[in-house]
Design goal:
Elements: H1 3-36, H2 41-46, H3 60-68, H4 73-83, E1 88-93, E2 96-101, H5 104-112, E3 117-119, H6 123-129, H7 139-154, H8 156-180, E4 182-184, H9 185-202, H10 210-224, H11 235-263, H12 272-278, H13 289-319, H14 322-337, H15 348-352, H16 355-368, E5 374-378, E6 382-384, E7 387-389, E8 394-397, H17 399-403, H18 443-460, E9 461-465, E10 472-473, E11 479-480, E12 485-490
Parallel strand pairs: 2-8
Antiparallel strand pairs: 1-2, 3-5, 4-12, 5-8, 6-7, 9-12, 10-11
Length: 493
């Protein structure tokens, strides 16, 4: 091949590369044209730095790729590497133009300022959770629902009632597992936490359909973080069908319970459903069936999934950190030793004395960051730190980025409960349950459930894991890929 031919080939290759670059630039500009064209020049120039990604899908592919690669931090670190460590980045996520936030002071402002920001979960998630769920209602309705459900869910009296129920189920499960041989620890914990939360909410009348209900809730949970494709075969479509089946079941239970209350002499408070049917707001208005169903679905789903995963991780962390295991075990032994004679079982007062175990739970919540982000929406144009957040844009509060930032927590990947000794996190730095009025209303119940399990596990059992170094799957929740198979072994004190 002569020099002229080589030169000619190079010319055409150059043209081809130029065309490809123009096409890529054009594709990358589609979302900018769709979502920024009507903002005006001044607003466009004041947006945080970032990238709206590919047409329509935005940054979702890079998000999914990072989480499936086993290195979820790479998604945010790519923004930081390209656009600096300012902590605010524009993107297109879950079908909406969005600003990702990873700076504690900005996050705190967004979570606390209800006059400027409102709940901003994607419509697909709201449809699954329910339009009268905590996800879907306005700030005003949220305050009302939170107020009337606070006592039945997180009140001192309610938590005291739930302790014996949780403890009985935990003791039964641990004894059963110790006799089963090999188990999938996460799978069994999910069954346990589902049973606990079902008994707390609906007592024993759903015993005959417990397994079927758990499958429905698992399907719904997977749908929350799936791409919104409502076509048979896709996770979101299956989740939506599961929700319809659940509504039918729960509506029947509520109607039957109301009939019993109407024919009985007064109200017997056997479970949370009784309390929800009874509670009233300041104007004497009770919850309607739809509010109760959406509340039940939200709490039942979050209650068993989050508690099971966090308990799994806390148990594994303790088992692989002998010194922390020893400290936590000694604390639980002291609590039992100091128990008044004649007392059987844990009390809420003893739970409040579990100071070191509380640090274990908090450290697990930080590392795992089960809810790695939440959503808000700007109700009006907002100027903050020299940037403009346009009205209607979503704000993605990236909890995981905050919890794994070495500036907030030195050596963030290390499990170290003692980091919480005499340490009070700065506002916006520790957010496992959110913050502000939208703080997860079931946070106290979840920590109680986790702590009761760990109390009895530490006293009498150990977990022999088959594969303690198993890779982690991060969607929809961080968990060992193999669901932590092993043996629960009973030990003598």
């Amino acid at each position: 091949m002569g020099f002229g031919e080589v030169e000619g080939m190079g010319y055409y290759v150059g043209i081809l590369l130029g065309i490809i670059m123009v096409l890529i630039w054009g594709l990358k500009s589609v979302n900018v044209w769709i979502y920024e064209k009507n903002l005006g020049k001044k607003k466009r120039e004041s947006l945080p730095p970032g990238d709206l990604g590919w047409p329509f899908i935005g940054n979702m592919w890079s998000f999914i790729r990072a989480f499936k690669s086993g290195n979820p931090e790479s998604f945010i670190s790519a923004f930081v590497h390209r656009y600096g460590s300012n902590g605010m980045y524009k993107s297109l996520m879950f079908g909406n133009p969005s600003i990702i936030l990873i700076t504690p002071d900005v996050v705190r402002k967004v979570l606390m300022d209800e006059d400027t920001f409102q709940q901003g979960w994607p419509d697909a998630a709201i449809k699954l959770a329910g339009r009268k769920s905590f996800f879907g209602i306005s700030n005003e309705e949220h305050k009302r629902l939170r107020k009337v459900t606070k006592a039945p869910i997180n009140g001192h009296e309610a938590l005291s009632i739930y302790v014996p129920n949780i403890e009985a189920n935990v003791l039964s499960a641990l004894e059963k597992w110790s006799q089963m041989g090999r188990i999938e620890f996460l799978t069994e914990l999910r069954r346990l936490t589902f049973r606990i939360i079902m008994y707390i909410f609906l007592n024993s009348e759903v015993e005959h359909i417990m397994e079927a209900l758990e499958k429905e809730f698992t399907t719904i949970n997977h749908g929350f973080r799936a791409i919104c494709i409502n076509i048979p075969g896709f996770a979101y479509h299956e989740a939506f069908k599961a929700r319809r089946r659940l509504i039918t079941t729960l509506d029947g239970i509520i109607k039957e319970r109301k009939k019993k209350q109407e024919t009985s002499q007064g109200i017997t408070r056997n479970d949370m459903l009784d309390l929800l049917l009874e509670c009233e707001d300041d104007e004497g208005k009770k919850l309607d069936n739809e509010e109760i169903i959406d509340t039940l679905i939200g709490y039942l789903n979050a209650g068993h999934e989050s508690s099971a995963h966090v308990t799994t991780w806390a148990t594994m962390f303790l088992q692989t950190h002998p010194e922390d295991f020893k400290k936590a075990k000694e604390e639980q032994e002291r609590i039992v030793k100091n128990r008044p004679s004649g007392q059987k079982g844990l009390t809420l007062k003893e739970y409040r004395q579990m100071e070191y175990l509380s640090k274990v739970v908090d450290e697990t919540l930080r590392i795992v960051s089960l809810s790695f982000m939440t959503f808000r929406e700007a109700k009006k144009d907002v100027e903050f730190k020299g940037y403009v957040i346009p009205k209607g844009w979503k704000l993605l509060i990236w909890y995981r980025g905050i919890h794994h930032n070495p500036e907030n927590y030195p050596q963030p990947e290390e499990f170290n409960p003692s980091r919480w000794d005499n340490y009070v996190p700065k506002p916006g730095v520790f957010l496992p349950f959110g913050a502000g009025t939208r703080l997860c209303p079931g946070n106290d119940l979840a920590k109680l459930e986790i702590s009761i399990f760990l109390h009895h596990f530490l006293l009498k059992y150990k977990l022999e894991m088959e594969n303690p170094g198993c890779p982690v799957t991060y969607l929809p929740h961080p968990h060992p890929k193999d669901k932590s198979p092993g043996r629960i072994v009973k030990v003598s004190n």
